């Protein structure tokens, strides 16, 4: 058999094999972001004796931190895909050559291993029930702007439209271990998987009354049996949103019952109302958030609104819609994630927060915004020595310029006039002294693709 015949036979066999295999369209999607924050502040590097955020005669610091996220989606069809999301954080000048840590690798030499797994989950439409299923480690935000839970978790969530109602049911395993230390970390020395756990159960529903108004309801159960007999926190909520011409309003109420982590009988609530209206060249927004607190005087009862813990000393709650930079956690925070109020629970003192903001497009590719926020404890307890509930007033402003369609540069400045709650609360070398008012200026570059 000569060479030409061999090639012809091989070509024919290849063609026959190709047409005998069914066509299979597989798509690869890549998305992501990069953010750089150049921060100058007396707040981010403050005295740890005051919670790491406030100090008397706090020195100005300058820090550069960056974050990159890469999302890869393996799409088998419109009904089935695998979503993966990875994150790399670094602070310039921090720990080159490190291995196995997060937020490192920015020093001279770089070359550190700091790749974090943020999300890995299947997203598919069930052929049996018609429900959309998200199965794996994924992001979840409550239906109440994140004041109860906003974080990544491992679980399964099913959603389906039922006669005009979008219904969601979910389960998540938050922790798995036998003990929980005071710092909030699991003790791995004697862990029996699947026996001592903390879980979150979710039921959400939302209904469109018409094109301009929606109403919703929720039930969340946080069940923790890691440290003692089962602790249950039941959270029931209702929410609504409406648009009336150029004005959009929304509000919600959450009611909690069960027991808190100190085994006290719990009865607490939170509520919020917000509005946004077109005014002149921009939009004016305002909101009021209240989360009940407790004075700590009753060893058997508590009225402090509970947020879901994240395994550390903080919590997984946020209120990014406040647009605060120092008073509340900011959506732009990375490893440097500090605020006067890190959780709506606020050390069991609860929270009363009022905000007003205005944003406008100045011209093509240039926009600006300004915000004012006033924060108070809902109820004072022994968390602070002051008798005042007034935490302070924040003023912030930002200027955004779109360098390219997907690259935006931002300059932001924020300043907080501290209230009497912080008067004379210093410890250590700053004993009985009042901390300096915190400030922050930063330049950011945000790139998305």
Output the radius of gyration: 26 Å
**Which word captures the global form?**
globular
Structural category: mainly beta
Distance between the termini: 55 Å
- Tell me the β content: over 45%
**CATH hierarchy class name:** Mainly Beta
Q: Provide a count of the helices.
A: 1
Estimate percent helicity: under 10%
Helix and strand sequence: HEEEEEEEEEEEEEEEEEEE
What is the average per-residue confidence, as pLDDT, rounded to a whole number?
Answer: 87
CATH architecture designation:
Beta Barrel
What is the makeup of the main sheet? 18 strands, antiparallel, barrel
- The residue ranges in which pLDDT falls below 50 over 5 or more consecutive positions are 3-23, 179-184
Q: What does this protein structure show overall?
A:
- The protein is mostly beta strands and 449 residues long.
- Helices cover 4% and strands 51% of the residues.
- A hairpin with a 5-residue loop joins strand 11 (247-259) and strand 12 (265-279).
- The longest helix is centred in the first third of the chain and has 18 residues, at 3-20.
- It is globular and about 65 Å long.
- The protein starts with a helix and ends with a strand.
- Residues 3-23 and 179-184 have low confidence and may be disordered.
């Amino acid at each position: 058999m000569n060479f030409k015949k061999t090639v012809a036979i091989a070509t024919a066999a290849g063609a026959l094999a190709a047409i005998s295999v069914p066509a299979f369209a597989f798509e690869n999607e890549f998305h992501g972001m990069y953010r750089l924050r150049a921060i100058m502040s007396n707040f981010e590097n403050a005295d740890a004796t005051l919670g790491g955020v406030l100090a008397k005669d706090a020195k100005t610091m300058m820090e550069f931190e960056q974050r990159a996220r890469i999302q890869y989606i393996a799409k088998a069809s419109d009904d089935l895909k695998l979503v993966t999301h990875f994150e790399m954080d670094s602070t310039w000048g921090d720990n080159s050559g490190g291995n196995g840590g997060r937020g490192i690798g920015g020093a001279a030499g770089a070359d550190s291993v700091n790749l974090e797994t943020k999300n890995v989950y299947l997203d598919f439409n069930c052929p049996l029930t018609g429900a959309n299923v998200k199965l794996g480690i994924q992001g979840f935000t409550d239906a109440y702007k994140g004041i109860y839970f906003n974080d990544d978790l491992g679980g399964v969530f099913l959603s389906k439209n039922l006669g005009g109602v979008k219904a969601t049911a979910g389960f998540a395993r938050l922790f798995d271990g036998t003990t929980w230390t005071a710092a909030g970390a699991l003790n791995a020395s004697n862990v029996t998987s699947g026996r001592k756990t903390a879980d979150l159960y979710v039921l959400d529903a939302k209904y469109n009354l018409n094109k301009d108004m929606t109403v919703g309801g929720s039930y969340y159960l946080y069940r923790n049996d890691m440290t003692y007999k089962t602790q249950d926190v039941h959270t029931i909520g209702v929410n609504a949103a409406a648009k009336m011409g150029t004005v959009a309003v929304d509000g919600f109420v959450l009611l909690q019952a069960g027991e808190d982590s100190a085994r006290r009988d719990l009865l607490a609530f939170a509520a919020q109302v917000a509005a946004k209206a077109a005014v002149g060249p921009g939009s004016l927004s305002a909101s009021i958030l209240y989360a009940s607190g407790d004075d700590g005087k009753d060893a058997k009862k508590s009225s402090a609104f509970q947020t879901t813990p994240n395994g550390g000393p903080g919590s997984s709650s946020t209120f990014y819609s406040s647009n605060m930079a120092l008073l509340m956690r900011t959506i732009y925070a990375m490893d440097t994630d500090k605020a006067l109020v890190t959780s709506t629970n606020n050390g069991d003192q609860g929270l009363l927060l009022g905000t007003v903001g205005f944003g406008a497009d100045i011209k093509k590719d240039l926009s600006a915004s300004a915000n004012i926020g006033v924060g108070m404890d809902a109820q004072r307890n022994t968390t602070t020595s002051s008798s005042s509930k007034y935490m302070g007033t924040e003023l912030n402003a930002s200027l955004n310029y779109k360098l390219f369609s997907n690259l935006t540069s931002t300059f932001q400045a924020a300043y907080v006039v501290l209230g009497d709650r912080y008067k004379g609360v210093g410890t250590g070398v700053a004993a009985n002294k009042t901390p300096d008012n915190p400030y922050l200026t930063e330049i950011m570059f945000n790139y998305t693709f």
